[in-house]
Amino acid sequence: MKIAVTYENGQIFQHFGHTDQFKIYTAENGKIISSEVIDTNGSGHGALAGLLSALGIDALICGGIGGGAQMALTQAGIKLYGGVSGYCDAAVEALLGGTLEFNPNVKCGHHDHHGEGHTCGDHGCGHNFQ
After folding, report:
1. How far apart are CA 107 and CA 40, in angstroms?
2. What is the pLDDT tens value at each position of the chain, 130 positions in all?
3. Rounded distance, CA 103 to CA 77, Å?
4. Which is nearest to 17 in space by CA: 67, 91, 84?
């Protein structure tokens, strides 16, 4: 199983479409056997689902994520665990152990408001995208 986590300084980055890095984990028999941090090379939103699909990712752990990206992940066959915060490693361990707390209805509804600025209040990323 391959798991991707939006990544920033060991923590789950809180806006899928603006993540600069993913931490990719390979797990077998419920245990992490390897991990690496990869750059997104400027890919954003929908292109990230394609990147993850090309990497053979089975599951994504992230904070906030928009509806379009959720649909792209679903079409790519990637299981979404959104609305998660904290340390990446701990989240993956919780997922593998069946105890990960996530929000299946996580949404980021600001995608039509980039020019107006947005504080991602729905998912607490604290970034103002303008």
Report:
1. 22
2. 999 999 999 999 999 989 999 999 999 999 999 999 999 987 766 689 999 999 999 999 999 998 888 999 999 999 999 999 999 999 999 999 999 999 888 776 544 433 333 344 444 444 433 2
3. 18
4. 67
Q: Could you tell me the maximum CA-CA distance found in the chain, to the nearest angstrom?
A: 47
- Each domain of the chain, given as residue ranges in start order, spans 2-116
Q: How far apart are CA 105 and CA 23, in angstroms?
A: 23
Nearest to 43 by CA among 32, 54, 33: 54
- pTM, rounded to two decimals: 0.82
Helix (H) or strand (E) holding 25: strand 21-28
Domain 2-116 has CATH 3.30.420.130: yes
